Amino acid sequence: MPEPRTYVLISPCRNEADYMRRTLDSVVAQSLQPTLWVIVDDGSTDETPQILADYAAKHDWIRIVQKPDRGHRAVGPGVVEAFYVGYQSIDPADFTYSCKLDLDLDLPPRYFETLIERMEADPRIGTCSGKPYIRQNNTLVSERRGDEMSVGMTKFYRRTCFEDIGGYVHEVMWDAIDCHKARQRGWKAVSWDHPDLNFEHLRPMGSSQTSIWTGKRRHGFGQYFMGSDLFFYAATCVFRMAEKPYVLGGLAMMQGYLAAWMRGDRQLDDPELRAFIRAYQRQALFKGKSRAVAEIEAERAALFATTP
Predict the structure, then answer these.
(1) Beta bridge pairs of residue 63
(2) Per the domain annotation, does 275 fall within a domain?
(3) Given pLDDT bands bounded at 50, 70 and 90, which one contains residue 208?
(4) Are 140 and 222 members of one domain?
(5) 3 state SS for the chain
(6) Sign of the CA dihedral 264, 267, 271, 273?
(7) What average pLDDT does this structure show over 223-237?
(8) Nearest 5°: phi and psi at 93?
(9) Rounded CA separation 258/220 (Å)
(10) Do 185 and 253 share a domain, yes or no?
(11) Residue 291 is assigned to a structural domain of this protein
(12) How far apart are CA 23 and CA 17, in angstroms?
């Protein structure tokens, strides 16, 4: 059995020279440093390889894994593919926890220690995170991520939960599907807004590939792929219209969903999970997310007792 507080970070990255030093420095400064940090260089063509080499030379718990260049940045399935290159280089049984960590974040110094403390206090928490903030006019502004999900840029997992849900799917919305799957299996998925857990996201959500418009439409496709209820997603799009780019961003999200629907694109090959997600979303529309999640967690408490 691994020591109780052992954890491994796995970071897919490509051309992160503009941001990565702040992430690297914030992890080095953690009150509870990782047991191992595997950084997968997914074909970087900027200064990323040299920066990684410099940090790895100073810290023996940082390991660099090179992945052949695919020729472009990839999100969704590409990120998951690169993550698994790192994951397959370790023995997961050596660690109590694992975390998929992006290299465009600035973490508070007690970030990982605080997550572990909260997971130790509640064994049903399978995945968790803090909250992302972005800087606008020298002010940190919340990205408004729901409490019922661990956020995709820093997915902290209990190893037993990660194995129970079968890991990540290789598609857009992998970072929501995993939380729904965990909850379906009796675990809790959660994120908290707290000074020790709030972190700065150095690159806006959905802007890491072609444009923010592409990212918004991609998100809509991902919601269709996941099986999201149309009315619930329409409400989500309205909620996001209050963020830049105002109104048009929410419309682009809905465009992505409806275009996938009209094309008859494939959906997640797990009908039971798709039905579970839609049932939760419909409850959330009428009762609110917090109450809907609380009821699901109460209903599925017995499942957690039988989880390996």
Answers:
(1) 38
(2) no
(3) very low
(4) no
(5) CCCCCCEEEEEEECCCCCCHHHHHHHHHCCCCCCCEEEEEEECCCCCHHHHHHHHHHHCCCEEEEEECCCCCCCCCHHHHHHHHHHHCCCCHHHCCEEEEECCCEECCCCHHHHHHHHHHHCCCEEEEECCEEEEECCEEEECCCCCCCCCCCEEEEEHHHHHHCCCCCCCCCHHHHHHHHHHHCCCEEEECCCCCCCEEECCCCCCCCCCHHHHHHHHHHHHHHHCCCHHHHHHHHHHHCCCCCCCHHHHHHHHHHHHHHHHCCCCCCCHHHHHHHHHHHHHHHHHCHHHHHHHHHHHCHHHHHCCC
(6) negative
(7) 94
(8) -65, -10
(9) 8
(10) no
(11) no
(12) 11
What is the domain extent for residue 254?
Answer: 212-263
Is the same domain home to 70 and 183? yes
- Chain length of the chain: 308
Q: 92 and 162: one domain?
A: yes
| 13 and 109 together in one domain | yes
The Cα 33–Cα 27 span in angstroms is 7
Q: Is the pTM of this model over 0.85?
A: yes
- Looking up tokens 């997914």 gives 42
Helices 289-299 and 174-184, packing angle to 10 deg:
50
Q: Structure tokens of 280?
A: 């939760």
Indicate if the pLDDT at residue 210 is higher than 80.
no
Provide the number of structural domains found in the chain. Answer: 2
Nearest to 69 by CA among 60, 78, 56, 59: 78
Q: What is the mean pLDDT of the chain?
A: 92
Q: Which of 117, 125, 129 is nearest to 155 (CA)?
A: 129
Are residues 223 and 172 part of one domain?
Answer: no
**Could you tell me if residue 282 is inside a domain?**
no
